[in-house]
Amino acid sequence: MNGSLEQECGSGGSWEKEIPYCKRCKCPCTRMKNQVIFRTQKQLQDKITAIQKKLVLEKKNLASQKNAKISVADPRPSAKAVGSIVGVGIIMFTFAIIVLLDLPVLYRHIRFGPRKKIKGSTKSHSKSKGKEKKNT
To answer: Domain boundaries in the chain?
Structure first.
């Protein structure tokens, strides 16, 4: 690297010190054959922009996005145990809720016996419907 890396803007609007630039290495290494030298800041910035455009990835093509929609089997014994316990727990919880909701009815049935049908309850019910129709 030749030139000064610390630049100050002069009163005339130009740099006071020599603008830094890269000089080709005189190294005999084979990897230096393809060395690119940028003579201006614009060339360097254009190359950086081109590289950045190449490096941008589309989100839909990322493996993390594809794997987010795939369910993968988990062969670990701990995963199977947790899955079994949670599954059985949900089924038992649902069954317990149903039984708990029916406990008051079961208690009444055991204590007082089954409900007896009241004779005439259907007749009085049908008569009340008929009266409603006549009133309207």
So the answer is: 1-57, 77-115
